[in-house]
TrEMBL record:
<dbReference type="GO" id="GO:0016740">
    <property type="term" value="F:transferase activity"/>
</dbReference>
<feature type="domain" description="N-acetyltransferase">
    <location>
        <begin position="7"/>
        <end position="94"/>
    </location>
</feature>
<dbReference type="InterPro" id="IPR031165">
    <property type="entry name" value="GNAT_YJDJ"/>
</dbReference>
<protein>
    <submittedName>
        <fullName>N-acetyltransferase</fullName>
    </submittedName>
</protein>
<dbReference type="InterPro" id="IPR045057">
    <property type="entry name" value="Gcn5-rel_NAT"/>
</dbReference>
<dbReference type="Pfam" id="PF14542">
    <property type="entry name" value="Acetyltransf_CG"/>
</dbReference>
<dbReference type="InterPro" id="IPR016181">
    <property type="entry name" value="Acyl_CoA_acyltransferase"/>
</dbReference>
<keyword id="KW-0808">Transferase</keyword>
């Protein structure tokens, strides 16, 4: 099971993934005003590649955006590609990809 922890301040934040208590990945973002944030980096530890860690962090970011009325700008190649593949999460995009 993947657990995602979210940290946030007025300038930036992150979604950090853990599997069985072990660090598995990190997604970082920067605020672009009060209503949107830019996902700028996603990394998954080698041992957890292909296990859905990146997608779980992205879905946590989407859930956060939906619950708080925020929009996402996906600059990170992983986030951008995932948004392009999954129409169900595109409602939080600033501009549809």
């Amino acid at each position: 099971m993947i657990e995602v922890k979210h940290t946030n301040d007025e300038k930036r934040g992150s979604f950090e993934a853990f599997m069985d208590g072990t660090h598995a990945g990190l997604m970082t973002y920067t605020w672009a005003g009060e209503d949107r944030f830019i996902i700028d980096h996603t990394e998954v530890d080698d041992a957890y590649n292909g296990k859905g860690v990146g997608k779980e962090m992205l879905h946590a970011a989407v859930d956060f955006a939906r619950k708080n009325g925020k929009s996402i700008i996906p600059l990170c190649p992983f986030a951008k590609a995932t948004f392009q593949k999954e129409e169900a999460i595109q409602d939080v995009l600033v501009n549809k990809v």
